[in-house]
Amino acid sequence: MDHSSNSGVAQFITVLNFQSVTLVLPAIQHSLGFSAENLQWVVSANALAFGGGLLVAGRLADIFGHRRIFVCGLLLSTISASGCGLATSQFMLVFARILQGMATALMIPAALALIIDLSPQGTLRYRALGAWGFLVRLGRGRNVAR
Fold first, then answer.
1. Is the pTM of this model over 0.70?
2. Can you give the residue ranges of every domain in the chain?
3. By CB atoms within 10 Å of each CB, which of 21, 49, 62, 73 scores lowest?
4. Residue 15: left (phi > 0), alpha (psi -120 to 50), or beta?
């Protein structure tokens, strides 16, 4: 598997991670005792951390290296996913979801930059970017053929 496909798989996983939590919200609410109002933080904490960290993470990738920041994002993603699975309180779960959003913010701009860095200009780069975009769409779980 080359670096562009690794970046694509990471993109797919992060989008799937963000979308799939909505399927288990009722179970999360029941097991951790979330109120209906506070349950939204399970989704929103991730989105806010991602959106808030995206520009900073892109700049960090430019300064410290795309591959290094991408790997840091993968490690943080693994740690935060484990934290979500092991959460025993509302606070632990929301905190782990914030870490997941930060991990995604680190990975996405670095992954895109890696694809551009490692793909020669022209048709191969366009195919790699197209595959990356396809995996985003696939991770959302919608009809890809639309």
1. yes
2. 3-25+39-139
3. 62
4. alpha
